[in-house]
Hints:
Number of strands: 7
Largest sheet: 5 strands, antiparallel
Shape: elongated
Oligomer: single chain
Strand order of the largest sheet: 4-3-2-1-5
Bound molecules: zinc ion
Number of helices: 1
Amino acid sequence: MEAVVETTGGAFPAHTYLLDSNNLVAYVKVNETVPFYFKNPIKGFDKRGRKFVPGNNTLFTLKKETHGRTVIGSSGQTYTVTEESCSCPGFTYRGTCKHMGQHG
Length: 104
Ligand SMILES: [Zn+2]
């Protein structure tokens, strides 16, 4: 699948879209890190008259099933935080970490 960032401007926000050929599978809003997955991919995503550049595919590594949110660690890594857990090493060792408080 292919991630693209919209650069059309004007009425089109610069969201990042995840495309499966011509189908829109998910998108990440501007300045957000958690993707929104459509229940059913939107068929025939129309790029005509709009501009896109290649986007960051790793934004979409978070699966919708986790119900977690992604936080950026101090070294730039991304971790998935849910109500009960965090994927960072600190949580793995101590069973808690500073990211847990950021769960919203
Ligand atoms: Zn953590």
